Amino acid sequence: MLALSLGHGCADLSSSALWALLPFLVVERDYTYAAVGVFAFVASVASAVLQPLLGAHGDRRAGFWLMPGGLIVAGIGVAVAGVVDGFALTLAAVVVASAGVAAYHPEGARWARLVSAGRVNADMGVFSLGGSVGYALGPLVVAAALAPLGMRGTLLIPLVPFAAAAVLLFVLPRRRRPAFVAAEAPHAGAAGASQWGPFARLLAFTCVAGSVTTALFTFVPLYLVEERGTSPGASNVASSVLLAAGAAGTLLGGLAAQRYGRRLALVVPQLALVPVIALMPAMGYGGMMAAVALAGLGMNAYISVTLVQAQEYLPTRMGLATGLTVGVSSGVAGLCAAALGVLGDAYGPAAVLWAVAPLPIAAAALGAWLPRTVPASRQALQEASA
After folding, report:
1. 178: which residues sit within 8 A by CB, 6+ positions away?
2. How many CA atoms are closer than 13 Å to the CA of 338, on its beta-carbon side?
3. Which residue, 16, 57, 202, 300, is the most exposed by fewest CB within 10 angstroms?
4. Does pLDDT of 209 surpass 60?
C-alpha cells in the first residue's frame, strides 16, 4: 500500500508540476494567456478521456505495466515541456505528461483495493493521501529545479517519478500471480452485479465536489491579490495552507468513513464548506487563513470514499470505475473553473466565491441519495474475493 501511495504521489506531483510550469512558460517563452489556457484545457480533456479508456484496458487485461509505465511517461512529458521550443511541441509534451498521469490512477486504485487489509476505507485514504501530498509538493519541486538551472531544470523533475516506478517494479510484481488472479476470479461471471444508477449519482457527486475544490485552488489566491491587495507571496501561503489541509482531509475522510460510515464522510464535510466559503469575502487575512484551512480539510474528505464506492458499484470494471470517477470529474471541474473565470472577469473574484458557496449543498444532496450500505450482491462478491 505504501508503494502504491508513493506512486500515486509521484503521478500527482507530475500533474501539479505541469500546472506550476505554466507561469514560467509565459515568462520564458512569451506565450499568451490564451495559449496557456489551451494547455490547461488539453490537460483536462486528456485526463477525462484517457483515464476511462486505460481503466477499461486494465480491467480486460493485465494492467500492471500502466503504473510504472505511466510514471515514466509522465516524467518524460514534464521534462520535455520545459526544454522544447514552439507551441506545438510544448502542447505535445503536455499531452504526453497528461497521458502518463492518466495511466496510473485507474490501475493504482484497483491494486490499492485488492491489497487492502480489510479496512478498505482507511487503506484507500492512505492511497489517496499520497496523491494529495504529491500534488502539494509539485510546485515546490518545480521551484527547486528551475531556480538554479532555468527551464533546463525540468530535466531533473522526472527523477522523482522514475524512482517511484523503480519501487513499484521491485515491490509489486511478485503479487501479480497467483494471488491477484484468485482475488479477481469471483468477478469474472458477475457482470450483472454492476449498479450503474448509483454509480451515475456518485459520478455526479464527484463532479460537483471536484469543481468546488478546483475553484478554491484557482480563485482564493486571486481573491487575496485582487480584492485584498496582498502580495503574490502571501497568496501563495494561502495556496500552501489549502494544499496541506486538503492532504490531511483526504486521510481523515477515509478514517471517518471507516469509523462512522461513508454517508457521514460524504455529506457532513460538504455541508460544512457552505458557510466557510460564503464568509471568506467578509474576513481579514488572518480569518481567511483559518477559513482556508477548514475548507481544505472538508473539500478532499470525499476522495478515498468515492473511489471505494465506485469500485463496489462496478465490481467487474474497477479500472473503468476509477477512470470515470477521476477523469470525468477532472474534466468537468476544468470546465467549471473556466465558466467561473468568465464570472470573475465580469464581477470580480468575490463573486466567484459567493457562486461557489452553494455548490456543496448539491454535492451533499447527491451523497445522501446514494445507497446507505453495500448491496448484498456486492457484499457477496467482496466476501468471495477476500
Report:
1. none
2. 17
3. 57
4. yes
Range of lowest pLDDT (41-50, 187-196, 279-288, 375-384): 375-384
Q: Which CATH number fits domain 196-369: 3.40.50.2300, 1.20.1250.20, 3.90.170.10, 3.10.50.40?
A: 1.20.1250.20
Tens digit of each residue's pLDDT (9 = 90 or more) over 120-164: 888 898 999 999 999 888 888 888 898 889 899 999 999 999 999
For 154, the enclosing helix (H) or strand (E) is: none
Q: Are 273 and 212 in contact (CB under 8 A)?
A: yes
With vertex at residue 269, the alpha carbon angle to CA 266 and CA 273, rounded to the nearest 5 degrees, is 135
Domain chopping of the chain, boundaries: 2-170, 196-369
Other CB atoms closer than 10 Å to residue 23's CB: what's the count?
Answer: 12
Distance between CA atoms of residues 158 and 209, nearest Å = 30
Chain-centre distance for alpha carbon 148: 30
Higher pLDDT, 37 or 240: 240
85-90 contacts at long range (C-beta below 8 A, 24 or more positions apart): 85/29, 87/31, 87/35, 90/25, 90/29, 90/31, 90/39
| CA gap 349, 382 in Å, rounded | 46
Report DSSP letters for 87-100, one per residue: HHHHHHHHHHHHHH
Q: Which CATH number fits domain 2-170: 3.50.50.60, 1.10.10.10, 1.20.1250.20, 3.40.50.720?
A: 1.20.1250.20
Kindly indicate the confidence band of residue 379, based on its pLDDT and cuts at 50, 70 and 90: very low
- Whole-prediction pTM: 0.79
